[in-house]
């Protein structure tokens, strides 16, 4: 089942973070990618929280969440319209109560990065290993 794509939009609000998590969980269940579901849900939650926290000052009311399955890789992308602040991996002081989201993304993913969007904003992309589930493979014949 390689080559699937799912695109969703969520309003930039705190209530959208659990909705984005549940959306990722449901899509990955449908795609039979349970082995990466927990990591993908956590990553989607962190990225959606970053949008709600930082991108509310952008020009749009929504953020996009894209899931793509390609050749053993799950690509998760979160896009927003806030272009003035690109996410950066940093090591917060032990006393800080926030700022660890991208550390989790970095630890759980094969690769991740940020790219500017045409017009305004950015997309944070994440790659997770998503090998084909043996139960979903078709036997030749």
UniProtKB/TrEMBL annotation:
<keyword id="KW-0418">Kinase</keyword>
<dbReference type="InterPro" id="IPR050267">
    <property type="entry name" value="Anti-sigma-factor_SerPK"/>
</dbReference>
<keyword id="KW-0067">ATP-binding</keyword>
<dbReference type="Pfam" id="PF13581">
    <property type="entry name" value="HATPase_c_2"/>
</dbReference>
<keyword id="KW-0723">Serine/threonine-protein kinase</keyword>
<feature type="domain" description="Histidine kinase/HSP90-like ATPase">
    <location>
        <begin position="14"/>
        <end position="126"/>
    </location>
</feature>
<keyword id="KW-0547">Nucleotide-binding</keyword>
<dbReference type="InterPro" id="IPR003594">
    <property type="entry name" value="HATPase_dom"/>
</dbReference>
<protein>
    <submittedName>
        <fullName>ATP-binding protein</fullName>
    </submittedName>
</protein>
<dbReference type="InterPro" id="IPR036890">
    <property type="entry name" value="HATPase_C_sf"/>
</dbReference>
<dbReference type="GO" id="GO:0005524">
    <property type="term" value="F:ATP binding"/>
</dbReference>
<keyword id="KW-0808">Transferase</keyword>
